[in-house]
Amino acid sequence: MKTLLLNSIKKAADLILKGEVVAIPTETVYGLAADALNKDAVKKIFKAKGRPNDNPLIVHIADFEEIYNFTENLPKEAEILAKKFWPGPLTIIIKKNNIIPDIVTAGLDSVAIRMPDLNITRDLIKLSGRALAAPSANLSGRPSPTTYKHVLNDLENKIPAILIGPDCTVGVESTVIDLTSDPVCLLRPGKITAEEISGIINKEIIIDKSVNNLISDLKDVKSPGVKYKHYSPETRVILVETDENKFAEFVNSKPECVAMGFDEDSRLIKNANFISYGSKNSQTQQLSKLFDSLRKIDSYNAKIAYVHIPANKKNLNLAVFNRLLRAAAFDLIKI
Ligand code: TXA
Ligand code: MG
Question: pLDDT, tens digit, for every residue of 128-143?
Answer without folding.
Answer: 999 999 999 999 989 9
